[in-house]
User: What shape does this take?
Amino acid sequence: MKRRHFIAASTLPLLGCEKPEEITGSFTGINHERGHLLRDNKTWPSPSVTRKTDVIIAGGGVAGLAAARALRLQGQDDFALLELEDTAGGNSRGGAVNGIACPLGAHYLPLPSDDAPEVQDLLEELGLRRRVAGRWEYEERHLCHSPQERLFFNGAWQDGLLPLQGVGAATLAQYQKFSGLVEQARSAARWTIPVSNRPLAPVQRALV
Ligand SMILES: Cc1cc2nc3c(=O)[nH]c(=O)nc-3n(C[C@H](O)[C@H](O)[C@H](O)COP(=O)(O)OP(=O)(O)OC[C@H]3O[C@@H](n4cnc5c(N)ncnc54)[C@H](O)[C@@H]3O)c2cc1C
Assistant: This one.
């Protein structure tokens, strides 16, 4: 089954829910008005600064920041990174709740194996990895060992990210089928990040 077919099939039962739980609270870290400026065709203030540059990077999420870093490493400094929000980071942006630092979205990075030298280099550049007595050590303060994920669903917390309470036997069977397929793909080929570091096996190509 293709990933998009799985997602379409697994969201259908949600559409049939009779009375959705009321969600209180709001989104944080993003400004909807700014995001909708283009859609709503609002008038824009005139530019206060005009600058010419060789490369424009649209968006300062992880992808945009990685592009900026790649350019800098190649000695290309004539670029501008444009970000809609007040701070960079996108979905990986951090924040604080009641004075305690916390992630606002993405928050963990698996320890990179030797298949991912680019990620290892980045962590070294950030001062999070260093050589001690011939061995690599990672800065423990930034490590997240065995991330534990919980989901707030139907008014209660549960372990894991898949909704379990009251979902019905058909949905549970879908979960099992999906996890079987993932296990099958996992044992059929080795996965690396970035995927471009290793030629894709047939089972991986089938998912692209
Ligand atoms: C809840 C959640 C948790 C996740 N947790 C993890 C995790 O723990 N580990 C992990 O590896 N991955 C995680 N992911 C996935 C990861 O967050 C994303 O893959 C990654 O952040 C995507 O980065 P990006 O730069 O492509 O996009 P984004 O992070 O979305 O960045 C896009 C940037 O572009 C800006 N932008 C948008 N429109 C404009 C415009 N018109 N002009 C200028 N700027 C604009 C936005 O403000 C934003 O800063 C998670 C995803 C979600 C949703």
Observations:
- The pocket of flavin-adenine dinucleotide is lined by residues 58-64, 82-85, 90-92, 105-109 (CB under 6 Å).
- The chain has six helices and eight strands.
- Residues 169-188 form the longest helix (20 residues).
- Residues 163-208 form one domain.
